[in-house]
Amino acid sequence: MERITPLEDILDVMKSRTADDHAFVTKAYHYTELAHGGQKRYSGAPYFVHLSAVGFTLADMGMDAKTIAAGLLHDVIEDAKRTEEDIQIEFGDEVLLLIQGVTKLGKLKYRGVERHMESLRKLLVATAKDIRVIIIKLADRLHNVSTLRYVPEHKRERIALETLQIYAPIANRLSIGSIKGLLEDYAFPYAYPEEYKKVEAIIATHVRDNEKRIEKLYRTIQIELAQNGITDTRGSFRVKRTYSLYKKLLKHHMNIENIYDILAIRLIVPTIGDCYRALGIAHALWRPLPGRIKDYIAFPKPNGYQSIHTTVFTGDGGFLEVQIRTPEMDNEASLGVAAHFAYKENLNTNGKSLPTRFAWVKEISKLQKAAATGDYIQTLHTDFFEDRVFVFTPKGDVIDLPVDSTPIDFAYAIHSDIGNHIAGAKVNGKLVSLDTVLKYGDIVEVETKRSAKPTKKWIDYAKTALAKKHIRVALQEESKNTAK
Ligand code: MN
């Protein structure tokens, strides 16, 4: 049975906050409980179960008191007949704006694959006003999808599909890994029941017995780190999540033999220097698979994700992915954009400032402060809110780019090092010029040469801020070198 999250649990995860924050959240908690009175969920449990759960998720993510309060209150206007005026008087303008934003987003419905990108765009445009709206909406959706078993059958599939097609990709784009994975795993069985059964069967036969093995491997590497002087480490190990395994299986014709990251160990070490040392230690312990070291610290993913990944042979015929990162990188990988809106003191516990990972998120916060210049808005719209084209690498990986992107954007989206050495490009097997506009479904191949370098023209050819930025940096370095 679903249960109400007690106020004490919420205040407990807010331990480090001020008394004012506690009082504000407490007031919202009691206000909501009273307002929704006798309303019930599908399960028959009080409606307040849902609201207290959303409040808890937000508090647990370290969000500010106003966001937690808005999460608790998000349905009082629509479903509990409280007026906007009332909320404004009791909780202020900011909370009211957040609730209004969440209510508007609630009207968004999944209407088939072909239209979901449009919904995605609308959702992102809505968040430009205040990104906390989407964070509340994600927490709201997370609880709803975690209780899908109580929802009438004819509604389940729609909610599940909507979650996989709209909300999980948004959580991913905002790099809120902690929510993205849960949304997918809760929704998967109801969105694609047949496929889910298949994946479960594959896991049952191939993966289960590995769980004991991975625990042992994890202990081995932790001891090895300590013996090499890297202490104060944390970490975890996991078996790949069901939905993410399913997506990977699709790419590999459902053949599990080709998937190397079913088992993964995560090592969280104090500094970036320690990350590279830990990589060396892992490789001394287990032989690495050639060509599978990914340095997302030096080259973050487009959503800002940072970590080192390597795949190793564990000596008993199995593979293991080792992910290595600092606590700051780990915090951002799980909270993503939310980390930037979280309670500030939480983030600076080590006296270190956050890594500068979310250039575009910072742009959004600048927008919020209404200090945005036309340029900022243009960049934002170009990269995140406009329609996107999906193109493919020759191996079939999907690259998601804004409309009017060129092979240059494609190359930089894969890796800055590829971008910086483009010598030519092929689209659907034919040689094209570097300013060719890519179309939906194009298969793009980029040729590189070590001697090839960006030119000024490339800035005009590129559409994405990411590509333009790298080209500018490369040009600056080039001119410095010639000046010498
Ligand atoms: Mn709700």
Fill in the keyword field for this structure.
alpha+beta, 55% helix, three-stranded antiparallel beta sheet, single chain, binds manganese (II) ion, five-stranded mixed beta sheet
What report would you give on this structure?
The protein is α+β, with helices and mostly antiparallel strands and 484 residues long. It is built from 23 helices and ten strands. It has a five-stranded mixed sheet. It has a three-stranded antiparallel sheet with strand order 9-8-10, covered by helices on one side. Helix 6 packs across helix 7 (93-106), helix 8 packs across helix 10 (153-173) and helix 9 (132-146) packs parallel to helix 11 (177-191). The structure holds manganese (II) ion. Manganese (II) ion (MN) is lined by residues 50, 74-75, 140.
Strand order of the largest sheet: 1-2-5-4-3
Classify the secondary structure makeup into a structural class. alpha+beta
Which band does the percent of strand residues land in?
A: 5-15%
Radius of gyration: 24 Å
Q: Characterize the largest beta sheet: strand count, sense, and whether it forms a barrel.
A: 5 strands, mixed
Query: What is the β-strand count?
Result: 10
- CA-to-CA gap between the ends? 72 Å
Uncertain spans: 344-386
Helix content: 55-70%
Average the pLDDT over all residues and give the rounded result: 82
Number of helices: 23
What is the overall shape? globular
Bound molecules: manganese (II) ion
